[in-house]
Give the backbone structure.
Amino acid sequence: MRVLGVDPGLTRCGIGVVDGVPGRPLTMVGVGVVRTPADAEIGARLVLIERGIEEWLDAHRPEAVAVERVFSQHNVRTVMGTAQASAVAILCASRRGLPVHLHTPSEVKAAVTGSGRADKAQVGAMVTRLLRLDAPPKPADAADALALAICHIWRGAATNRLQQAIAAHRPSRAQESAT
């Protein structure tokens, strides 16, 4: 499975592509950051993020997109920018019919490091180890995007199996109306 991970941000939007399946070694396909100037108008910044994500989708053809779930922070301005960049990533993937999965920061940290409270350095070190890289990807947004892709590869398969099992045991609407 090929997953594009997106660590949303207005100034730096981390992008990482990972190939793999649970239980097998993972492979980094690409990593980078879509940057926008802090002094540009919000609309222009969102267009730059959209173009950057579209280029990554065209170049790497992922099967799924994993985006960091926006969570409440003390700085409302930062949260708004993160939410807007997240929406752009979700829109780009959805426009192509790609499944989009949201993962919380603590879920990603727990999947990659074993602790939902891991710091950026621990996440970067484990991403480096798991993908057999020479050094942690820079900036941290790029490492976080790879961590999102890894998290989805490992957790997404289990989540999909659970959803399929639940659906298989849920009565259909025809069965419900017959009772």
Remarks:
- Residues 22 and 157 are 8 Å apart (CA to CA).
